[in-house]
Write a structure and sequence with these properties.
about 80 residues
């Protein structure tokens, strides 16, 4: 009996890997976030943080505080009716 052409020695599935290159696994989503460098992060958020801190400082310094909630009037010497 003759063997079918696909079942001859050397043509089986165990030798298919030699013909086709191995596939690389898909990169995970987490791996993209790990690739961000601290330098790039500082260059991105540094100016934003600097502007926010400066705006907060100027707001505190330039905006007048509210008047006090109590008012004390000195009208005369202690113990008098004034």
């Amino acid at each position: 009996m003759t063997q079918p052409s696909g079942s001859q020695p050397g043509n089986g599935p165990e030798h298919d890997s030699e013909r086709t290159p191995a596939r690389r696994p898909q990169p995970r989503i987490v791996a993209r976030f790990v690739a961000i460098s601290w330098h790039d992060l500082a260059l991105t958020f540094g100016p934003i943080l600097l502007v926010c801190v400066t705006a907060l400082y100027l707001a505190v310094r330039l905006i007048q505080p509210a008047p006090p909630s109590t008012l004390t009037i000195a009208a005369g010497p202690k113990g008098s009716f004034f």
